[in-house]
Amino acid sequence: MSASMIGMLGILIMFVLLVLRVPVAFAMFAVGFAGITILDSSRSAFSLLASESFTLASSPELVVIPLFILMGNVASVTGMSQRLYDAAYAIIGQFRGGLASATVIGCGGFAALSGSSVASALTMGKVALGQMDRFNYNTRLSTGVVAAGGTLGILIPPSTGFVIYAILTEQSIGRLFLAGVLPGILLLLLFIVMIMVICYFKPDFGPAGPKTNFQEKSKAILGAGPIVAVILLTIGGIYGGLFSPVEAAAVGAGFVILVGFVSRSLNIRMLWKAARDAVVTTATVMLILIAAHMINPFMALSHIPTAVGEFLSMLDLGVTGTLILILMIYLVLGCFLEGFAMLVLTLPIFFPIIMQLGIDPIWFGVLTVLTLEMGLISPPVGINVFIVKSVAPNVELGDIFRGVLPFWLMMILAVALLMAFPQIVLVLPNTMFG
Question: ∠ CA(285), CA(286), CA(292), 5° rounding?
Answer without folding.
Answer: 90
